[in-house]
Amino acid sequence: MEAVILAGGRGTRLKPYTTTLPKPLVPVGEHPILSIILTQLRAAGFRKVTLAVSHMAELIMSFFRSGEQFDLELAYSVETTPLGTVGPLTLIPDLPEHFLVMNGDILTDIDYSSLFEAHLKSDGELTIATYERDLLVDFGVLDITKNSGRITGFSEKPTYHFNVSMGVYIFARSLLERIPQNTPYGLDSLVLDMLRTHAPINAYSYRGYWLDLGRPDDYDRANEDIVSQSAFANLIIQKSMTAPGKTTAVNGESVMRSDR
CA distances (Å), 233 to each of 28, 108, 148, 160, 205, in order? Predict the structure, then answer.
């Protein structure tokens, strides 16, 4: 199995942490976010991972090198102009018939191999891992008719329930034909385009541990969970990154790093 990790964002929501570090290197406890993800993917049976990088790409490549410390084949696709969340996939050659795509700031104990198997058994080109998230509104919410302006309902600080994308997907390679070349194109555009053409999209509902570490509240909670050791028992965290290696950029230009 192969995976693509989208790791090119600037992490503006996590400032000041990302002022001097790219988001994938921001630590959760003692380990960078991306180190945890790579370790989990290897444990789930993935053998090759491509990092789609842009902001502070050189620092990310110097840190993770060829992936030997994770027992992975690690490659890099360098995005020189912003292409959105899905556009960078067009820069990566020789992707397999089905592959995992995920954001580089996700902390979860989802079983990636089970997600992959569920996708293969489906009839869809795209599977989106979903999570039910609660949204508490800190105001009294009114129902008002447009014509008369009368209030017809009232809820005091209600909680709404939404199914949200976890930022983890399984793609069929055929989806690349939908993605324009050299043009910013996001997952939202892809999903809307697929819905317009009635292409099937599968949801993989998950109810375990999931945090979007690009959100300051979730990032703080992750570090609190590590300290308290709650909700973290199933996460696999890499303990050392000492193996030498070298890196290669895959979008046309090789970038070598000396052994250390």
Answer: 15, 11, 55, 29, 21
Distant-in-sequence, close-in-space partners of 2: CB < 8 Å, separation ≥ 6 = 46, 47, 48, 49, 50, 95, 96, 99, 100
Q: Residue 241's pLDDT is what?
A: 36
d(Cα 252, Cα 60) in Å, to the nearest integer?
A: 18
- Residue 14: what pLDDT? 58
> Can you read off the two tokens belonging to residue 251?
């979008």
Eight-class DSSP state of 180: P
Closest CA to 216 of 40, 26, 35: 26
Catalytic residue, from 48, 121, 157, 239: name it. Answer: 157
pLDDT at 200: 94
Ordered structural domains, the chain, with CATH? 2-131+164-228 (3.90.550.10)
Cis peptide before 180 (omega within 30 of 0): no
Exposure of 162 in the CB half-sphere (CA atoms within 13 A): 9
- Using CA atoms, how far residue 114 sits from 7, 55, 96, 129, in Å, is 23, 32, 18, 11
Residue entry with tokens 């800190």: 138
The verdict on whether 157 is a catalytic residue reads yes
- What is the pLDDT, as a whole number, of residue 21? 72
pLDDT at 243 over 80: no
User: Minimum mean pLDDT among 17-31, 60-74, 81-95, 149-163: which range?
Assistant: 17-31
